[in-house]
């Protein structure tokens, strides 16, 4: 949990200019009627502009909306609350729990940043507010609804690299960096016109898979024409409808925020939880986080245990099939899939609402689907998962790879 609360800089230029020009559509931006009339620019030039941007100060408001296509509204946040949130954790002010709310629904946030040492985020939820402040060696979080405060401070003997950092949710800049880092010869990148975002002139960078079978229709990034800062990020699914992720500034100012924006004093009577002290107490007592006491149920532990570099071909290890946007992770849990007909009726109905029974040369199984990530769980305990269509998962299982 301590690792979850630590992150790097809020605004970090990433060296994306190394993306080979051969993989990028060199189509210049052409302004449509009503859009800003900006100089023509190629995709390679725009990517270089993003890489060269070094925005250290800003303040403003941005809105993030997430639609995973799950059948029940709030299911995603409910699941994450059950896997570590709620009153059983370290309090409602703990950012490792509170910020999981951003993975579903629509949220408005106020943000401010002054270099790598000072950032502030305020999550607005009706009349209640949740604030996360990073100022030097301190991270403070305050939940106005529960009147709870979370505090974490770097140890006295820690170096600059050990100072706690506020892990703010995915800004357009962070989301854009992740996509551009992964761009390769399976990707088409073009510039598609201009736009006004938060009152700023912007170019629109469009990223699309070249491969068939991906669930990603496109990623669109609105880039500030003056300083190269991404202002808006939109991830669309081939299913259409609302974007899977739509995160963008509605108001932004790149001047230096006031120093007082990053000061915090716990309100009188508020309950204050010290993060470092809590972690030390848990380690001393052997207490583990999460609903399973730090241990995954049998089967899940095997399925996830081999995930990561260096995984072999044993039970629970992960093999990656294909590359780029249509890569599929194959996991052999080593145990038959649990029978859904033995689950409570309420759970059977939930699973049935976003699971499709499928058959093929591999046997039979169930595809659990969202608008982006789909997973095939075969009856003999193999898992195929990726940002690919149901047919792509079934074909991979049929190939027996």
Q: Topology of this protein?
A:
Blueprint: H1 43-52, E1 57-66, H2 75-82, H3 95-98, E2 105-114, E3 118-125, E4 128-135, E5 138-143, E6 148-153, H4 172-181, E7 187-197, E8 200-209, E9 216-224, E10 230-237, E11 245-253, E12 271-274, H5 275-285, H6 300-305, E13 318-321, E14 328-332, H7 345-353, E15 355-360, E16 363-369, E17 374-378, E18 382-386, H8 390-399
Parallel strand pairs: 6-12
Antiparallel strand pairs: 1-2, 1-11, 2-3, 3-4, 4-5, 5-6, 7-8, 8-9, 9-10, 10-11, 13-14, 14-18, 15-16, 16-17, 17-18
Mean pLDDT: 74
The total count of helices amounts to: 8
Q: Please write the CATH class name of the largest domain.
A: Mainly Beta
User: What portion of the residues fall into strands of 2 or more residues?
Assistant: 25-35%
- The CATH architecture category of the largest domain equals Clam
Strand order of the largest sheet: 7-8-9-10-11-1-2-3-4-5-6-12
What is the domain total for the residues?
2
Structural class: alpha+beta
Number of strand segments: 18
Alpha carbon gap, first and last residue: 36 Å
- Helical fraction equals 10-25%
CA radius of gyration is 23 Å
What is the string of SSEs from the N terminus onward? HEHHEEEEEHEEEEEEHHEEHEEEEH
Q: What name goes with the CATH superfamily of the largest domain?
A: Lipoprotein localisation LolA/LolB/LppX
Unreliable residue stretches = 1-33, 72-90, 158-169, 288-315
For the sheet with most strands, the description reads: 12 strands, mixed
Shape: globular
CATH topology of the largest domain: outer membrane lipoprotein receptor (LolB), chain A
Question: What does it look like?
Answer:
The protein has 401 residues and is an alpha+beta fold. The chain has two domains: 21-262, Lipoprotein localisation LolA/LolB/LppX (outer membrane lipoprotein receptor (LolB), chain A, Clam), CATH 2.50.20; 300-399, TATA-Binding Protein (2-Layer Sandwich), CATH 3.30.310. It has helices at 43-52, 75-82, 95-98, 172-181, 275-285, 300-305, 345-353, 390-399; strands spanning 57-66, 105-114, 118-125, 128-135, 138-143, 148-153, 187-197, 200-209, 216-224, 230-237, 245-253, 271-274, 318-321, 328-332, 355-360, 363-369, 374-378, 382-386. The strands form two sheets. Strands 7-8-9-10-11-1-2-3-4-5-6-12 form a twelve-stranded mixed β-sheet. The chain starts with 42 loop residues before the first helix and ends with a helix.
